[in-house]
Amino acid sequence: NRLDPIPQPPTKPVVGNMLSLDSAAPVQHLTRLAKELGPIFWLDMMGSPIVVVSGHDLVDELSDEKRFDKTVRGALRRVRAVGGDGLFTADTREPNWSKAHNILLQPFGNRAMQSYHPSMVDIAEQLVQKWERLNADDEIDVVHDMTALTLDTIGLCGFDYRFNSFYRRDYHPFVESLVRSLETIMMTRGLPFEQLWMQKRRKTLAEDVAFMNKMVDEIIAERRKSAEGIDDKKDMLAAMMTGVDRSTGEQLDDVNIRYQINTFLIAGHETTSGLLSYTLYALLKHPEILKKAYDEVDRVFGPDLNAKPTYQQVTQLTYITQILKEALRLWPPAPAYGISPLADETIGGGRYKLRKGTFITILVTALHRDPSVWGPNPDAFDPENFSRDAEAKRPVNAWKPFGNGQRACIGRGFAMHEAALALGMILQRFKLIDHQRYQMHLKETLTMKPEGFKIKVRPRADRE
Ligand code: HEM
């Protein structure tokens, strides 16, 4: 056994562990394996090993960026068909990664969030208006509406484009293409003869990518020649077109800007919509927590439904933020991320040897339920896990929903502000009804979402 003493599940000839991994729900399968095999194990994926780590002590060690760096492999490598050398799918050593990282820190910083706030309110108002106009027996497809919200928000804040998802039955054609492309990318596993039976899908992928690129390239070209001048706009596109990387003195080229926009649409909408959907699920199942959330929203936003929440008010939703963080713990929408050692390494107090370049997956779903950090009942939903005290006492690198270090999510502040605002505006207005008594059923794509989750809402009676 090449990686002894790291445990490995039983293998089959040639394919190793490849076919024994449930391809429709790989993350959930790996999470079960972690329970069985412990904080570190490895799989043989037709000759290439993947080491899966979920124990907090080991993840803490693997979070040292001097020894380990993000690696863009497997499905994420294939996402480059859409994301190119945009931030999410670039290797750290590619010149465009640090250039874009330096330029984009500003438009993802706190100050910029304040300028996006009115656009975020604009889209959240469209969501609550849609819900206000429903008939009493109308069902809400939670993931659909949350995806509409997050997509429209990144469209408007990112490049002043309105997808107008609340005015359509289906998603915008760009999103149809994006979702279809990601599906094909996730289905591709590098198996023998796969190219043959996937021919049609691969052709569609090429067409979809061409369509998405054309749309985004046109938006960029329009802006370049727009009479208003780039500086007048306060969106991320303007920041990318005018920003200069201080360390090289260079700017981003238009092809890279296109890849960044594609990336924001991939990274920015499914994840935040998953977060909001899980949070609504958790609130429905915990009336006592929901009650405290209503109390906070009433205190901070007040009773006037016509007054738009301010940026400051959203930052005061501290209990709502605890709820969101706890939802990110139990159901991290980006459930795993990949790293590899920069040189031959030994971890776990000399126990486990990892060769330079070994593909290591941090299994966040299992890390977030490690009893050595979260106590004997890690599956329980408890926002007190994120009280100021609990956060201060917890070891670092125990909660990693946004990844690690310099390669961590650049959009986390954006996502958290958007989610707190939307949840606040929903709770300010509606009573939530779990008419299906929905039980969590996770669907895995590039992210994980609750499948078939429907609710109903009523105007809050205690408000009338
Ligand atoms: C990176 C999660 C929202 C843009 C990441 C990573 C994670 C993550 C885990 C690291 C991936 C890796 O190591 O391979 C999330 C979650 C979100 C969220 C859970 C919502 C709750 C957003 C939003 C945007 C965004 C709203 C943009 C508008 C990015 C980008 C990167 C990234 C550009 C790559 C950063 C880099 O490597 O330089 N995200 N994300 N994300 N995310 Fe997010």
Characterize this entry briefly.
This protein has 464 residues and is α+β, with helices and mostly antiparallel strands.
Write up what this structure looks like.
The protein is α+β, with helices and mostly antiparallel strands and 464 residues long. It is built from 19 helices and 12 strands. The strands form 4 sheets. A 5-stranded mixed β-sheet has the order 1-2-8-5-3, sandwiched between helices. A 3-stranded antiparallel β-sheet has the order 4-12-9. Helix 6 crosses helix 7. The protein is globular, with a radius of gyration of 22 Å. The structure holds protoporphyrin IX containing FE. The site of protoporphyrin IX containing FE has 25 residues, from helix 12 and helix 19.
